[in-house]
Structure to design on (171 residues):
């Protein structure tokens, strides 16, 4: 190998290494802020849905949080086209489980095609409101069939598992 090729190869490796280090440092420096922003977005969704501020994480019993007024919050995730779709449901638990509000709090779906996930007022998202356990999810949206099917099935399954508070859960 000629000296100029060796010099070029070493320079390329050094640049790649510098870029990798810069990316790793940036990720470490921004991770706490990203986590805080995600938590703030989830708390804002919670406040918007229920009118209540967030409670500490220990208020959750698994993926269910009984609000002790016949309602509850559920959280979960669906496997969409591009990865996990994290959601919050505000539901009535008594006498039968019914959806009051739905918010998607995190996803990595294709921008443009899955923008409806960011819009709680979108007709497809609103089609879940007042649906009860055992009712089928709304029809899928063309162009986002994997996403809508996955979210619909996840919400239907979650709603079927919602139970009223147990003994001692509510004062």
């Amino acid at each position: 190998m000629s000296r100029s090729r060796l010099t070029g190869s070493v320079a390329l490796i050094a640049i790649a290494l510098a870029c990798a280090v810069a990316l790793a440092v940036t990720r470490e420096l921004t991770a706490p802020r990203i986590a805080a922003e995600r938590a703030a977005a989830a708390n804002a969704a919670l406040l918007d849905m229920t009118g209540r501020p967030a409670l500490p994480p220990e208020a959750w019993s698994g993926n269910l949080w009984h609000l002790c007024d016949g309602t509850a919050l559920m959280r979960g995730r669906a496997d969409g086209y591009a990865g996990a779709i994290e959601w919050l449901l505000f539901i009535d638990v008594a006498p039968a489980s019914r959806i009051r509000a739905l918010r998607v709090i995190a996803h990595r779906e294709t921008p443009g095609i899955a923008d409806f996930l960011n819009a709680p007022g979108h007709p497809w998202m609103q089609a879940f409101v007042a649906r009860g356990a055992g009712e089928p999810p709304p029809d899928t949206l063309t162009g986002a069939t994997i996403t809508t099917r996955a979210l619909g099935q996840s919400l239907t399954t979650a709603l079927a598992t919602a139970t009223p508070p147990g003994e001692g859960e509510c004062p």
